[in-house]
C-alpha cells in the first residue's frame, strides 16, 4: 500500500456515507477516493481503478444487494483490497469473518472503535501480514516436513500420543509435534484451542450454546465435528482468543 490508504465506501444510506467520510477526514493517512450507494456503480469504478484502491468500507444490508456476497466477489477479483464491514447488524459477524475482513464494526460507528479498525489496517500494511490462504505451515512427520496450506486445515486433534490434522479434502496427517506447539503457530491465523486436545479455525464456529442444567457450553461447527461440552473456565479462554479477532461474546 502507499503511504495514503486509498479508501472507498459502499453504503446505501447517504447519511451513513457522510458520517463515515467526516470521521475519516481526521486521519491524514486515509484518502477517500470514491463513495457509492450502488454496487454496480462501484464495480464499474473498480474495473478501471482497482489497483489504486487499498480499503473498502462495506455495509452488509444493502438495497437488493448482500454485502457478504460483494465481499466474496472483491476477494476473488481484487484480493489486494482490504475490507472493513460497517453495518447496523452485529448478527452477521460470524458469516462476515469467512471473508477475512480486517475488521467488523457496528453502526452507529464509535470514534474509538473506528480508530482501532484503522490501526489494524496500518499494522497490516506495516508488517505485510499475509492472509491465511497465502500461508503454508511445515508439519513435522517422522523424518520429513510436509508443507500444507493453513486454509486446508479443518481441525487438529490429539489422540493418545499422536496429533492428527484433518484437512478439507478429508485426508489426515499425523505429526510428531505437540498440539500446544501447533496452536502457537496457528493462533495468529484465526485458530482456537477449544479443548486441551482439539484446535479448530474460528470461521468454522456457527454458535455457542449454554446448557443451564449442566452449566456447560457446546460449540456448533459448520464442519459438523462433534465436540465435548466445555466448562465455564475453558469458555473464558476461548472467548479471550476470539476477542483477539474482535469477536464480542
TrEMBL record:
A UniProt-annotated Pfam family: Response_reg
SUPFAM superfamilies in UniProt: CheY-like
Q: Which UniProt keywords apply?
A: Phosphoprotein
Gene3D superfamilies, A to Z: 3.40.50.2300, LytTr DNA-binding domain
Q: Kindly list the positions at which 4-aspartylphosphate occurs in this protein.
A: 59
This protein's superkingdom? Answer: Bacteria
Please give the Gene Ontology molecular function terms for this protein: DNA binding; phosphorelay response regulator activity
Q: Where is the HTH LytTR-type domain?
A: 137-244
Q: Where is the Response regulatory domain?
A: 6-122
SMART domains with a match to the protein in the record: LytTR (SM00850), REC (SM00448)
User: Would the keyword Phosphoprotein turn up in this protein's UniProt record?
Assistant: yes
Q: Which PANTHER family does the entry link to? A: TRANSCRIPTIONAL REGULATORY PROTEIN DCUR-RELATED, TRANSCRIPTIONAL REGULATORY PROTEIN DPIA
Q: What name does UniProt use for this protein?
A: Two-component response regulator LytR
Species assigned in the record: Leuconostoc kimchii (strain IMSNU 11154 / KCTC 2386 / IH25)
Amino acid at each position: 500500500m502507499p503511504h495514503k490508504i486509498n479508501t472507498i465506501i459502499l453504503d446505501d444510506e447517504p447519511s451513513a456515507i457522510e458520517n463515515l467520510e467526516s470521521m475519516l477526514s481526521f486521519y491524514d493517512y486515509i484518502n477517500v477516493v470514491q463513495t457509492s450507494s450502488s454496487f454496480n456503480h462501484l464495480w464499474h469504478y473498480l474495473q478501471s481503478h482497482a489497483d489504486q484502491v487499498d480499503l473498502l468500507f462495506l455495509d452488509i444490508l444493502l438495497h437488493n444487494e448482500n454485502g457478504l456476497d460483494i465481499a466474496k466477489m472483491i476477494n476473488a477479483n481484487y484480493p489486494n483490497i482490504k475490507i472493513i464491514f460497517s453495518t447496523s447488524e452485529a448478527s452477521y459477524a460470524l458469516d462476515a469473518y469467512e471473508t477475512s475482513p480486517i475488521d467488523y464494526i457496528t453502526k452507529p460507528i464509535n470514534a474509538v472503535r473506528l480508530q482501532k479498525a484503522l490501526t489494524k489496517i496500518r499494522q497490516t500494511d506495516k508488517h505485510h501480514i499475509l492472509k491465511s490462504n497465502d500461508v503454508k505451515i511445515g508439519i513435522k512427520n517422522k523424518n520429513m516436513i510436509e508443507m500444507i496450506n493453513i486454509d486446508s486445515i479443518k481441525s487438529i486433534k490429539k489422540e493418545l500420543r499422536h496429533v492428527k490434522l484433518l484437512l478439507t479434502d478429508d485426508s489426515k496427517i499425523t505429526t510428531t509435534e505437540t498440539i500446544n506447539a501447533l496452536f502457537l503457530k496457528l493462533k495468529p491465523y484465526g485458530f482456537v484451542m477449544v479443548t486441551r486436545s482439539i484446535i479448530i479455525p474460528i470461521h468454522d464456529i456457527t454458535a455457542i450454546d449454554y446448557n443451564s442444567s449442566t452449566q456447560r457450553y457446546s460449540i456448533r461447527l459448520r464442519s459438523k465435528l462433534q465436540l465435548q461440552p466445555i466448562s465455564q473456565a475453558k469458555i473464558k479462554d476461548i472467548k479471550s482468543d476470539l476477542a483477539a479477532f474482535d469477536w464480542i461474546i
